[in-house]
Design a protein that fits this description.
Layout (H helix, E strand, L loop, with lengths): L21 H12 L13 H10 L10 H14 L3 H15 L4 H15 L1 H15 L9
Helix pairs in contact: 1-2, 3-4, 3-5, 4-6, 5-6
Length: 142
């Protein structure tokens, strides 16, 4: 049994089918995440590049839901997946900076999450809100 990894032939990248989404993706990502547009560029074909093109150029620009509604869904999913430490903080900050959500609304999202995903998940999300806002929830004072 061969336990050593032997690399196969190098793969040459194919055409970038998402290239038409690049400009819209950079503009939307900068607006949604409240970062300079120059900060949205990345190595072509990288995970970050795909996120810029597909997630921000495509998904966030689809009709049918507002940015605010997409933000609420995104925050809820990130909280449920316990991804708040990586992406959650930046989405909470951007939601507040853009005016998509208020601190009170973010805390109400935590209450909703508690009933559907559990108190530990909701508490972790609320700690993220606390960290971003520099405040603590009234519940923590009990």
């Amino acid at each position: 049994m061969n336990t050593h990894y032997t690399p196969g032939p190098a793969r040459t990248p194919g055409p970038d089918h998402f290239a038409p989404l690049a400009t819209a993706g950079r503009v939307t990502q900068a607006e949604i995440m409240r970062v300079p547009e120059e900060a949205t560029g990345s190595e072509p074909g990288s995970l970050s590049d795909l996120a810029t093109k597909v997630v921000f150029g495509g998904l966030w620009n689809r009709p049918g839901l507002s940015v605010r509604e997409r933000r609420i869904i995104t925050l809820t999913v990130l909280a449920t997946l316990q991804s708040h430490q990586i992406d959650g903080q930046s989405h909470v900050m951007a939601a507040l900076d853009r005016g998509d959500l208020t601190e009170a609304e973010l805390r109400e999202i935590a209450v909703q999450i508690a009933y559907y995903a559990g108190w530990p998940v909701a508490t972790s999300f609320e700690w993220t809100v606390d960290k971003v806002t520099g405040t603590t929830s009234p519940v923590e004072d009990l």
